[in-house]
Amino acid sequence: xxxxxxxxxxxxxxxxxxxxxxxxxxxxxxxxxxxxxxxxxxxxxxxxxxxxxxxxxxxxxxxxxxxxxxxxxxxxxxxxxxxxxxx
Amino acid sequence: xxxxxxxxxxxxxxxxxxxxxxxxxxxxxxxxxxxxxxxxxxxxxxxxxxxxxxxxxxxxxxxxxxxxxxxxxxxxxxxxxxxxxxxxxxxx
Lengths: 87, 92
What we know:
The complex is a heterodimer.
Chain A: E1 2-11, E2 14-15, E3 23-29, E4 41-45, E5 55-60, H1 62-66, E6 77-82
Antiparallel strand pairs in A: 1-3, 1-5, 3-4, 5-6
Chain B: E1 2-10, E2 24-30, E3 42-47, E4 56-61, E5 78-83, E6 86-89
Parallel strand pairs in B: 3-5
Antiparallel strand pairs in B: 1-2, 1-4, 2-3, 4-5
């Protein structure tokens, strides 16, 4: 699980049926102090928990497919938690 | 998922039987605004959303690429799973 900040969103009407009602956010990976780390990634947000500027926790790879309710969707990264604070 | 532009089609008559009927597209990886990266990264991806040359798309790669009804159990590692209408960046 990685820490990131939502910096944008992607609109796509035409998508595979496994991802209907799933929206996509652009997330900048960050360190615990808020510093940027690497290129932004596109994350699915199946539970619609994040908005612009929010800090989130996201999972990648096979774990990301598990974060989708059906467990069967072509995603590489998924937002799973909204971060309140990092100590 | 990565951003990409569809830049061409790949035609192959002899292919794995699980790929029969699937369309292969040549895609160039871009950033969120559609700008090419300097390293010119190209991917051949299976099309699951009726995309065409010139479209701005999202590609899923790796084992997740097999997680669509049309690519289930196929020997592929990249699939076009969405055609992008718009991208809104609120900060860099």
